[in-house]
Predict the structure.
Amino acid sequence: MLNLIRSLKSATLNKNIFKTTLLSRFIVNEPSKTLAKDVLIYKNDNTRYFRIMSFFCMSQYVFWNYMAVCFLRMNETKLKDDVKDTSWLYKINFGESKWRYPLGILSMVLGTSIAIAGFLYCARNVKLLVLRKDGKSVSFVTYGPFGRNIIFTTPLEKVSAKASRNSANSAIPLKVKGKMLHYSVDTRGLFVHPQIFDSTVGLRRQL
């Protein structure tokens, strides 16, 4: 019985030593050391929401482009002379060139803009952050169209957090050098290793 208790204490102690060693490489004074394997430091799996968002964007694109075709195919009709007590809206001839082409082009631009904005919104939300085993680079996994993953790896020196994990309200904006706009880390996600996140991806750097 005494030997069993000692073995349990030894296992717990070894587990704590492993965690402390892992964190010390990035918190204390050894950030350049390599890891035994890649480390997941953040996770926010919200695939269903972003898949629905993708379908919404695509439906808007199809709808507004269909409206554009309808506008461009409208025939010009003349209003009858005996119609007098009609609202000004009903007197507009949308089949005229001055109405047909602007409305068609506006519909195409609107549908395309909604689709692009929606897909960019999905692609800028971070699903996973993985610290590579070299300790000097991090892999981003974001949401692509219809729930697919977008994956890229960048050096840590090219990543700058615009807010700390404790001060951010709903999301932590991350700027990646060479990328347009910012990536968003939802604070409601799971920070698997919060200390490692703070000392690697969560640092504010001059880019």
